[in-house]
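Researcher: Sequence recovery benchmark, item below. Answer with residues only.
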């Protein structure tokens, strides 16, 4: 199994996870500039990034700022053409089987699939994953399980 660096990008911060062999190796949420350096220097074999899709509703500056960061992350990867863009729709269908799934449903599906976070003394396979890193983990698991079109 290869290691995947997966990202849930935001306007100023990005959730990230290194995922391999059904377990989280590292995860966190950092400023975008720090994550950009992480992408450049990553030992991971694959990069997967949550991509924004348009559903016909107006969007604002924050959405465009996030899309700009997605492009910067892709370009920083050692093989930009191999970066995998994963849409939220793919995540919902793959992990929950429904487009109606919300973040708590996705988090529970990840715990059901990978295991409980556990405790500091007895860490589980998702130990340490918090906030936007859960979305990054969902991107990693989806990228691993769903072939690219």
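Model:
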């Amino acid at each position: 199994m290869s290691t995947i660096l997966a990202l849930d990008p935001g306007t100023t911060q990005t959730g990230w996870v290194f995922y391999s062999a059904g377990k989280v190796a590292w995860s966190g949420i950092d400023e975008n500039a720090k994550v950009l350096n992480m992408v450049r220097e990553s030992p991971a074999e694959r990069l997967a990034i949550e991509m924004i899709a348009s559903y016909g509703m107006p969007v604002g500056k924050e959405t465009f700022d996030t899309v700009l960061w997605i492009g910067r992350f892709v370009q920083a990867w050692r093989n930009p053409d191999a970066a995998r863009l994963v849409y939220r729709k793919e995540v919902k269908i793959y992990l929950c089987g429904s487009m109606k799934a919300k973040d708590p449903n996705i988090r529970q599906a990840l715990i059901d699939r990978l295991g409980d976070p556990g405790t500091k003394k007895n860490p589980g396979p998702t130990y340490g994953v918090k906030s936007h890193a859960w979305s990054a983990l969902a991107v990693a698991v989806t990228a691993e399980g769903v072939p690219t079109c």
